Amino acid sequence: MLIQCSDTFTADYFNLAGENELFPIRHETITIGDAIHDIIAVEHFDPTTVSLRAFHDTTLYYRNDHYFERVNNSDFYRLPRDTVTLLCTGSECTFHGLYDPDEHKMRYCHDCATWFHIQCMEESDVESPTLPPYIRPLDPSNAPPVSQEARDRWQALLRYPIQRGTHQISGVLSFEILVLRIRMQESTRGCPPDVNSFLIANMPLARHLAHYLDTYLTIFLNQPPNPSFYPCPTCDCYI
């Protein structure tokens, strides 16, 4: 348990941490235990990339490469600055590049490979995000036939933003990996013949939630149909 933060940077990070977030601490600890009392599912993600799986609202998690260290063997702890890459690199980030998993919603710019807080951008009136350019197959005659119904469903999915945090559920729940996979499929091979099978095969659930696949697929497909989009602060994309 962290008792006191040794500096303002560490305190700011700690105050914006998620309720279920764990903090690896680097200092002396026990070297042996008599028995395993319980096995707890713990997930991890890289906050700077598209890497957050769909978590349950009680899932424990931690961020890769983020750890606290004890200062001079005291009850003060600090987060080494070189372990943290700030997000939302716009000139005037409302949250100083930090991320609160329980409160913040962020959008990812594929071109800039950067996350931005929704609060740090101005809402646009465009009706679709900027998608990666479509690469036509070398031999389109080999492509399997795709129904018009599948194409219509696929076009709706392509409008989903790469967002960390859903619209209707607070916490770390995110379908960012799935949406990125949808866009990459579109840019390389186009609409799959069986959209539902593609979603099932590419739903990135936390390992201990595999048996909730149908539940999370329903949540994903029932997101608000008309999301807002924002101009990327550092390029010409809409995200």
List keywords for this structure.
239 residues, 20% helix, 3-stranded antiparallel beta sheet, 12% strand, 5 helices, 4-stranded mixed beta sheet, single chain, alpha/beta
Explain this structure:
Helices cover 20% and strands 12% of the residues. With 239 residues, it is of the alpha/beta class. The model has no long low-confidence stretch (mean pLDDT 88). The two termini are 38 Å apart. It has helices spanning 8-15, 148-157, 176-188, 195-202, 213-221; strands at 4-5, 25-26, 42-45, 60-63, 68-70, 76-78, 106-109, 114-117, 163-164. It is built from five helices and nine strands.
Beta-strand fraction estimate: 5-15%
Structural class: alpha/beta
**Approximate shape:** globular
Q: How many alpha or pi helices? A: 5
User: Which sheet architecture does the biggest sheet show?
Assistant: 4 strands, mixed
Spatial strand arrangement across the major sheet: 1-6-5-2
Low-pLDDT residue spans: none
Radius of gyration (CA) equals 20 Å
What level of helicity do the residues show? 10-25%
Question: Could you state the order of secondary-structure elements as H and E?
Answer: EHEEEEEEEHEHHH
The total of beta strands comes to 9
The average pLDDT is 88
Distance between the termini: 38 Å
Tell me the number of structural domains: 1
What topology does this entry show?
Elements: E1 4-5, H1 8-15, E2 25-26, E3 42-45, E4 60-63, E5 68-70, E6 76-78, E7 106-109, E8 114-117, H2 148-157, E9 163-164, H3 176-188, H4 195-202, H5 213-221
Parallel strand pairs: 1-6, 2-5, 3-4
Antiparallel strand pairs: 5-6, 7-8, 7-9
